[in-house]
Amino acid sequence: MPIVSTVFDGFDWDAANREKCRKHGVSVAEIEALFARPLAVRPDPQHSAAEQRFIAVGQGKSGRTIFLVFTLRRREDRTYIRPISARYMHGKEIKRYEEENPDVQDR
Q1: Averaged over 83-97, what is the pLDDT?
Q2: pLDDT above 90 (res 103)
Q3: Which residues contact 103 (CB under 8 A, 6 or more apart)?
Q4: Angle, vertex CA 79, rays to CA 19 and CA 21, nearest 5
Q5: What are the φ and ψ backbone dihedral angles of 62, each rounded to 5 degrees?
Q6: How far apart are CA 62 and CA 96, in angstroms?
Q7: How does strand 10-11 pair with strand 53-59?
Q8: CA pair distance 24, 88, nearest whole angstrom
Q9: What is the mean pLDDT of residues 60-77?
Q10: Staple 58 to which of 12, 15, 88, 107, CB 3.0 to 4.6 Å?
Q11: 60, 52, 55, 62: which is closest to 40 by C-alpha?
């Protein structure tokens, strides 16, 4: 999975997705800062029945690895990232993820 840079115009937040991310301990600021760094992004076809979803894995400002599910929303020729869920990954998950995705380095 390549490390990619995502081009977008902003974030699509509301009370529901803010709270869903916060309940896992990841702040809005941490998620937004995640996109200022290289990210490993791949489609999530298993959970994309109604809309195309993506999984992103990268390091937040704190240095902790974040697992993020998001979709892209288009409004008036602009693209917005709509975070769906975010959480910090545990050491065993990171190790397994890196083993399953050897082409991902230096998120």
Answers
A1: 90
A2: no
A3: 1, 2
A4: 15
A5: -75, -10
A6: 21
A7: unpaired
A8: 7
A9: 90
A10: 107
A11: 55
* d(C-alpha 26, C-alpha 19), whole Å: 10
User: What are the tokens at 26?
Assistant: 């990841």
Looking at residues 34-44, what average pLDDT do you find?
Answer: 86
Q: What is the pLDDT of residue 98?
A: 80
Per DSSP, what are the bridge partners of residue 16?
none
Is the pLDDT reported for residue 77 higher than 70? yes
Residues 6 or more apart in contact with residue 25 via CB below 8 angstroms? 87, 88
* Residue 59: closest CA among 102, 17, 12, 105: 105
pTM of the model: 0.82
Q: Is the pLDDT of residue 83 over 80?
A: yes
Q: CA distances (Å), 59 to each of 34, 51, 62, 88, 99, in order?
A: 7, 26, 8, 9, 17
107: nearest Cα among 40, 47, 34, 16: 40
